[in-house]
Amino acid sequence: MWAYIVRRTLLTIPTVLGILILTFSMFSLVAKDPARAYAGKQASAATLKAIRHKMGIDKPLFFNPSAMHQKGSRGLFDSQFFDLLFFRFGNSMRYEESVWTLIATRGPISLAIQLPAFLIVMGLEMLLALYVARHRGEISDILTTAVSVMLMSVPPLALYIVLQWVFGARLRLFPVAGWASGYYAVQFAALPIIASVMTQFGGGARFYRTVVLDEINSEYVRTAQAKGVGPRDVMLTHVLRNVMIPVITNTVTALPFLVLGALILEELFQVPGIGGLLVQSIFNGDRSPVLAITYVTSIAYCVMLLISDILYTIVDPRVSFS
User: How much is the pTM?
Assistant: First the structure.
């Protein structure tokens, strides 16, 4: 197993580098001069030079041969790309704070919405999938399928606006938008959590229903039923264990994006999380947070893929690392 982990880790390195190079190159080519965008059109050349130095964009993009013999320099690798590669993200020009500080303060806010929503959705999807698969073709199965398709068909932005209007403006059960610290954060988080649950539910419910139905129709289930095993034991002992591989894949790979948050949701509900930070940074040309969040998320996603592969052997001994 350790040989497999080492091999997969080594394969992850070029994947992450490819994502980083592509993102960095596109942002460098397409984005406008961030110093000019920050300082304004009337800024002097000296002001622009100082801002570029502060942002670290006065360095070459990839390699810096001129710095090889400079004292205190990192030599050939003293460039914008290698600063990003080695997690030297610098400061956000808009917020004038370290990118790491922004991630540390805004990440828990995104988690406060996405983690409860994720757990609620996972629980509902699995329970409903097991139930409706056992009662295939009955009214509960038809209703679950209809609701899933309806939620998948509604654009998230439209759903967010309707929820704000109904629960916030009309019924006044929750604040329409905004955020607060401490205990008062609960009332501001409630409506975004409801919105996140509704937008995530449809696709997962249909997917898990299909997976459970495939297992129910398997030979080993019919054998267990022929031996007199009860329907409840068949579902919880046999079927549930064998559907855990797609569950693990969806669960583990979704974890990095819980911190990232929902971009449109956080912006519309004015939640100061990572998703809102990313959207605002893109619009403001604040490159440091954009590149940092993209880089860290890609690494986390690749690591979670590796963890999910390892977990497969725990739930299904038939999976081999050879």
Answer: 0.77
